[in-house]
Design brief:
single chain, alpha/beta, eight-stranded mixed beta sheet, 5 helices, 8 strands, about 30% helix, about 25% strand
Length: about 200
């Protein structure tokens, strides 16, 4: 499946996906990495995979998404993996790519949707934290879960230490979950989450 990876920053999850896709048996082939920021560090880490910048700053969301959609279709993209893409996509864009777009989120959804997940997990006193790969839906971080990886919250943890352990789990989970998603093509209404304890 011709896959685009969308990033906004350093692209560490992008790198883990590209490494998985280097295996000829993996069910995705990277054809494009797109960032909404020209200064995204991940743009320098894509190897031979083509890159594009579709700026979002100072643009209406609809104009940005129209340009993004056009760029994806120009490259023959069939599937999208969001990897640290820090834009909330409109329901119209999500509808155009429904069943063909996944995301990785740094919490065990449905807990801690949105931003600042590690700080919120520590403040809540949870003992298990982690990450979730999920289908993208119109609601933020509300799509059907593909897989999750659990990470213990240790005594003395701060936000940085917890974030680093969760990120390491993301790098393992996301390539596996993307392969599952591509095998499923679309989420079945009764599909259960696959829990990967790391």
């Amino acid at each position: 499946m011709k896959t685009a990876i969308l990033i906004s920053g350093r692209g560490s999850n992008m790198v883990s996906l590209l490494e998985a896709m280097a295996d000829p048996d993996y069910p995705a082939r990277p054809v494009l990495v797109v960032s909404n920021r020209a200064d995204a560090g991940g743009l320098a880490r894509t190897g031979a995979v083509p890159t594009a910048v579709v700026p979002s700053r100072g643009r209406m969301r609809e104009d940005f998404e129209a340009a993004l959609d056009a760029r994806l279709r120009e490259s023959g993209v069939e599937f999208i993996a969001l990897a640290g893409f820090m834009r909330v996509l409109t329901a119209d864009f999500v509808r155009r790519w429904e069943g063909r777009m996944v995301n990785i989120h740094p919490s065990l959804l449905p807990s801690f949707k949105g931003l600042d997940t590690h700080a919120r997990a520590l403040a809540a006193g949870v003992k298990i934290h982690g990450c979730t790969a999920h289908w993208v839906s119109a609601g933020v971080d509300e799509g059907r879960i593909i897989g999750q990886a659990a990470v213990p919250v240790l005594d003395g943890d701060n936000e940085a230490r917890l974030a680093a352990r969760v990120l390491a789990a993301e790098h393992v989970l996301y390539p596996r979950a993307l392969a599952i998603a591509l095998g499923a093509a679309r989420p079945a209404p009764d599909a259960g989450a696959r829990i990967l304890a790391l």
